[in-house]
Amino acid sequence: MEYEELIQLVREFPDRSTKWLLGSPENLRGFLLAVVSDIAQGIDYTRLVKLERTFISEKFRKREADMVFTAPFIDEKDGTTREIIIFLLIEHQASVDPTMTFRVLYYLTQIWNTQRDEFESRELPLHQWRFNPILPVVFYTGSQRWDQLLDMSQLMELPDSMEHYVPKIEIEFFNLKATPPEKLVEWDHPIGWVMRVMQKEDATKEEFKDALKSTIEHLEKLSIEEQANWGKLIYFILAFIHHRRSVAERSELLKTVNTAIADTNRRKESENMVKTIAQALIEEGEETGEKRGEKRGAIGAKQDDLIMILRERFEVTQEDIVKKIRSINRIEELDKLIKRAATSSTFEEVGIRKK
User: Potential cystine with 344: which of 6, 65, 151, 349 (Cβ 3.0-4.6 Å)?
Assistant: First the structure.
């Protein structure tokens, strides 16, 4: 892994981390095994090609990202090989989007349209046009419950006589927080264990530590030949700790990771990764030092907004809750809590834990 690549990942973790993690064929394989194992087993990952383009409009890039791959798929029925397209939509948003089906359908038609453009540029006769089938997967990492079916009919005032005119599209919806932990590690793939750590993002410190320990234990089983992927997975976990857990917990959680690594060389590599992350954060702070006062003001305003919503909706005035909110210094986390506070039915659903 290049130093600049690691630095950039730390600085842009919310937007880049999951794409970076699943960009390698082996990690994508592990992810798809957890999501749709029957299809995943038929894909030839040695010939996987990542398309370096996005179909997401500028309007939605703050809350989602997409990844598009092509790969041969071996049909187990007749042994034939056909090329398929894998479309992975990563949802950063914390709230449910009822228009998800429409947006996915729109993205898929854009992908097919690029194939049409290619057919035309090659002057391919119409009878030879063959569009590739697409496997669409939505990877939702938010905490809000998402029970709504991904169905276009949900967006329509639909007479019974018109039902058969509605486009039908099968979308694999993978809700990380709602997936049983045992399903994530059913195939004992390293990425499944890393997702267990991601799943515990909002858990107590002890629960998060337990997830860390069991995950590192399984990552230690990776062979020397898989060292590059071990490094990628460990770096992701360390960066995840920095960006998803409180400052007060970081030192202890990072120590938990290093203590759980049995191999001396790997432990040293992990320690160097921690230093790299720290250096990236220091450099970022130096580059934005003149904006710190402005940022502190923005954080304070977000804290005030959250406290006001909780008081108006749930009559929350407890000092320990207010103190907890004042200790949150990440705008992304405050935005997430504000959205939950505005849409949740009870204070408990907001997810603010008392210290």
Answer: 349
Nearest to 13 by CA among 66, 68, 92: 92
Residue 57 confidence class, pLDDT cut points 50, 70, 90: confident
In a domain, 67, yes or no: yes
pLDDT value of position 2:
66
Distance CA 68, CA 18 (A): 14
Strands 81-91 and 64-74: antiparallel
Strand locations in the chain, DSSP E? 49-51, 64-74, 81-91, 134-140, 172-175
Residue at 311 is within a domain: yes
Does residue 210 belong to any structural domain of this protein? no
CA Rg, the chain, in Å?
A: 22
Q: Would residue 171 count as lying in a domain?
A: yes
Contacts of residue 193, defined as CB under 8 A and 6 or more positions apart, other chains included, come to 184, 185, 214, 215, 218, 219
Count of structural domains within the chain: 2
- pLDDT at 289 exceeding the cut of 70: no
Task: State the Cα angle at 56 between 299 and 13, rounded to 5°.
Answer: 40
Cα→Cα distances 167→104, 170, 183, Å: 12, 10, 31
CB 89 within 8 A of CB 107: yes
How confident is residue 285, by pLDDT bands cut at 50, 70 and 90?
low
The values of phi and psi at residue 64, to 5°, are -155, 160
- Pair 44, 174 in one domain: yes
Q: Is the pLDDT of residue 10 over 70?
A: yes
Answer for the pair 204, 353: CB distance below 8 angstroms, yes or no: yes
Domain interval for residue 332: 299-350
Buried residues in 51-69 as b, exposed as e (16+ CB within 10 A): beeebbeeebeebbbbbbb
